[in-house]
Protein 1
Amino acid sequence: MIFVMGASGRMGGSVLRHADGPKRAGTPSGRPVEGAAETVPFDLDAPGTFHAALHRCEAMFVMRPPTATKRGPFDDLMAAAKKAGVGHVVCASVYGAQDSRVLPHRHMEAAVRDSGLPHTFLRPADFMQNLADVHAEAIRDRDEIVVPAGEGRSAFLDVDDIGRACAAVLAAPGEHDGKGYDITGPEALSFEDVAATLTRVLGRPIRYHPVSPPRFVASQIRHGRPASMAFVMAALYTVQRLGRAAPAKPDFERLTGRRPGDLASWAARNRDAFEKDGHGSATS
């Protein structure tokens, strides 16, 4: 059995779709999730939910919830995993977390690393799906993308490729123990490039407007985003602005034997999320 954290979200959902074997999904509600043999209530801030989630699991998929900024809950989770006899932890972090003093993902990585459990880190680039989850309204209603990324580039990743990478690790966990992989898309793009790609796919001009981090944070909070999440988003975009975001790396292709998905193909599949006459959402 594989325990999948964040199973109702995009990363966890991609693991449910691609990893082999029975999966136990952990969600706040515990309601059934497609692709899971079992679903249990799970909350990182509620250690009482850990035992049922991890009981008789040979492996687990761990990720950072958007509001998690401290190490303690991950230490508690790893202690519970060790007690339950989990054999391998696949930890989905973010590109550059291991060297960052700012990104909260570093706390999760430290807890996993110090647990003594066999583990593998997947460090993804920025997700293409964020364009639909975070920026769809601005793209759909105002034909614009507004982020503090300057002219920086990132090798945007289709989140479905995280599930494929996780599946490859769990197929031969011993080969990947203690290793970290940068999971990226096939090319590093600026947001000018992203806007140009969406312009071609959608058939109307999409513009990129770079803003300062404080203006971005204030705008996100004004639109209902929790402050902690807005600051993390600004930090990630600042990493890109400073030229430290993920370049295109070969790790995904080496793990899976396939080329990572590209932005134009993803946007074409999910164009309904950005159409002015609809309020769809990205499907993959």
Protein 2
Amino acid sequence: MSPVSPGTAARSKRRRRGAQRRGPWLAIVYWVVIAITLVPIVSMVAYSFNDAPTNRLTFAWNGFTTYWYQNLWNVSGLGAAFGTSVLVAFLAAVVSVAIGLPLALALERYRFPGRGIVSSIVFADIAAPSIVVGSASLSFFLSVGLGTGFWTILITHVAFDVAYVVVVLRARIAGTSKVLEEAAGDLGATPFQAFRLVTLPLLAPGMLAAGLLALAMSIDDYVITSFVAGPSVTFPLFVYGAAKAGMPPQVLCFGTLVFAVGLLVALLNGALNRRLARTRG
């Protein structure tokens, strides 16, 4: 057994002493944050099974029931609003990834005039308050004579989703190397073949993560959508309006289903990342 040097022993002792000085506060803060995050979600899931005799959301527990799930579409306008939100979110996510991928590649791998300005615009889009983005979007649509509705919601959601997609994909691209693409070129692959067969598979987990983030940002947006929705009603707009007269429990059911689907996709994405890591290893 090799002897431990005095320097190593001293460093180990300092680390133990530092861990003792930290005390329980880090763990307490961690669990408080976790509780703040999970309590609303757990409450939503639990009360979606609560028997509400008045057909309106109540926090008095009246017994377990699946009635609201069996009658999801019985609330006038709720199903249509939810469908509109899902369709807008899906299209916005797909279009945002399609636009954000080449933009992220250009910003991360190439140097060109105006690169700094484009990067600043991307981050400014993220930093801008929602009310500013919504009012600016409405002013633009009115100035060009475009009536508000489904398409203005979609355009606006793509506009603010692209920035988040670019940030996520740039981080993924920064963690990959061009060596494999260059090797594919040395083996006779064209630039497009190298991109399709090498780059895209490497970026696939990042693209999925960026798409999910864009979908989540879009499906629950209220402030920006309220400016540009016109006669169209999305799920957040319906919930806000219904809250004034009493919210139907089906709203919690839809929220629970969205959370369940999002959790499933996140787990699948994690499994895909681990599989790719083992393959590369």
Protein 3
Amino acid sequence: MKNTNHDQQLHNDVIETLRETSRTFFIPISLLVTELRETVASAYLCMRAIDEIEDHPDLEPALKSKLLHNIGDVLQSAQYNKETFIKMFKPFENELPEVTLRLYDWISFCPDEIRVKVVESTAIMASGMGDWVDKDWQIQSEADLDQYTYTVAGLVGVMLTDIWKWYDGTEADKELGIGFGRGLQAVNILRNYKEDAERGVSFFPDSYSLDDMFDYAHKNLSRADEYVASIETETIVNFCQIPLSLAHGTLKALVDGREKMTRDEVNETVNKVIKKTS
């Protein structure tokens, strides 16, 4: 696969697509040093490409599952090129967003030395999400919840941990990295559970009360705090602190009976981290 890291147009496309697809991660990624910024941006877009398929409101579950499993199989085989994905996505080119249709571009933008790890995590996520589509997202036990949150968010922590090690040898704990992803996802579940219920979906295990899910979120955010505290590289810490601080703030707002943080609270939280980098 040709390394296109220095293709200015692709670079611009990566940054612009990131800006359009992620309010949570655009700012922290933009604070990273250049080499990490490009790597984390392209890695994030790889996973966002997969996530858009799972969340697509109009694709039939059988088609979602087939497409996700096909992507997982192709990525694990390492036998693919741009034409592979053009052909795979052709039947869905009018339904899928650009971030998904350009999956190969995001993969090709990753530096050669870390690309295999990014692809590995993306492949596991794609296959895992396909499995959850097949299960109709039925979460019955805490073990199911752990597996679901690992698939859709914990793998992000695994991938980031691999990227930190590639960048400067940072040896962060992958299990705590999984907690980082799980904590953010648990807060999302709590923030959206009423809306999810309206469409007949619940990510709460059968035995879970609302308090149990709050406990699950607190537990994993504590692991996320440990994860960040173990890292010494300032640019990595700053990246992690924004989504983690926002998750803590959102959880506090939910505990207080509010739906979300106020705009002023969000701006204050983000600005605290930004000031540390200036």
Protein 4
Amino acid sequence: MTNNNPRKKIFHHLLQRYRIVIIADNSLEERMSVRFSILKFFAVITSVLVIIVFVTLFVVTKSSLGQYIPGRSKDDVLQSLIGLNMKTDSLQASLNRRDAYLNNIESVLSGNDSFLISNNNLSLEATVTLENISFETSQEDSILRFVVENEERGSLDYIKKDDGNFVFFPPVVGYISDTFNFQKKHFAVDLVAKKNSKISSVLAGTVIVSDWSSEVGYFIGIQHKDNYISFYKHNSALLKKVGDYVSAGEQIAVIGNSGEFSTGPHLHFELWHNGSPVNPLDYIKF
């Protein structure tokens, strides 16, 4: 009786054996024969494909080839990217601080201090007009001239800072006529000394500016280590040029009365640290 069941026909067809025979062409001798069924053929092919897939995944995940797969990177690559991103942010912050620092220095050199204190914060008492200044010789002036003329030039009084162990030399031997006052935008100590007194560098450093302006006259600025900068304004003459290296206590200028902001012969001395003005009295014994 003929079996008409389709499933049995398909199963029978899959199990039906076939033979592949390889025969020599010249002698017709059978060299090799392979017997197989369709079911066994597909089983072998599937096993080979599964092995290839597993071997490929193993090689890709356990070797450096994994970094070439889109969306997948090794941990060290990710860490490198994170480190580069952090360095970029740090560099950007450093550049922003340096730009602010250079803008402050540029404003100092031009005599513009409005970037530190708004004019609205200044009281009317801080405004000084030329008409209110008296240039007549007083008894105090006479005593001052006598004291200054009898003091030795080049005094080596100094203060040693605990933080940096710096030896700050006084820029000139004289009398303090005005002190540091942040609220009044007077970021300096004014020193009155005898005529033609030589001004000295408070620390060793390199001259970064040596010029003249209508506001502060002849001025010179020196860059010191640890981001200290000193400025000496209203001079009558400059003894150093940009790029010169000066030692602590070395003469750099001559005291004078140059510039529109000067009200008499004196030295306008400023000390800056990290782009901000500091009180020279905290660093130097005048």
